[in-house]
Design a protein that fits this description.
Number of domains: 1
Strand order of the largest sheet: 3-2-1-4-5-6-7
Oligomer: single chain
CATH architecture: 3-Layer(aba) Sandwich
Strand content: 15-25%
Pfam families: adh_short_C2
Protein name: 3-oxoacyl-[acyl-carrier protein] reductase
Family: Belongs to the short-chain dehydrogenases/reductases (SDR) family.
Shape: globular
Number of helices: 8
InterPro entries: NAD(P)-bd_dom_sf, SDR, SDR_fam
Helix content: 40-55%
Order of helices and strands: EHEHEHEHEHHEHHE
Amino acid sequence: MKRFAVVLGASGEIGEHIARQLAEANWSLYLHWNSEPLDTLVKELEIQYPGQEFIPLRADFSKNGSGEELAKLIFDASCVIVASGHALYKMLIDTSEADLEDLWQVHLKNPVSAIRHISSYFHRHPKTYVVFISSIWGEIGASMETAYSAVKGAQLAFVKAYAKEMSASGTRVNAISPGFIATKMNRSWSEEELRAIEEEIPLGLGTPKDVADAVDFLVNGKADYLTGQVLRVNGGWHM
């Protein structure tokens, strides 16, 4: 019997690494994207894993109701990974109402709405999983990223509450809290700024694979006694 995972934000670098690692672990995948089509990724996975299914789904999570609309296209799942998101570097006084709405919709409302609908399939499976890719800033906050830190902190609060609600159903709900991961989202930083940040982190900068490895740990039977936890993947930046 095929097992399906939903990867929200599969077009990002972290999301793509998660998708590849889940496919290697024999998951069939619903792959959510918005601005960057997943044709190449889907074709590669279909060639590598011909016995599995890889279904791309487009949804703009900045739009109200898009999480629910995406969920209507899914017909079974025992795992949801929330890797969708975007950064916002602004002082709060310069943050617009539109900025706040986008952060809320993309990072929390639409992912939670999607999970709310997809979870109706969880009873079919003895073990199910929900994992949010949150952020170190959701734990400790960041100047110039106040609004972003707030929605990332809200993700962590959701994880703890939903883990309590779903434990009797066999659903493990956890979060991964990455530190500084070297992705294109961070390429606006100068080399000097990157060196300064790297010097602060005992194990240096992280990679998308580091996050994907943590997801693999949480959803493939290696961490089934964990729920409601925040797994810090930050190289010792925050202990």
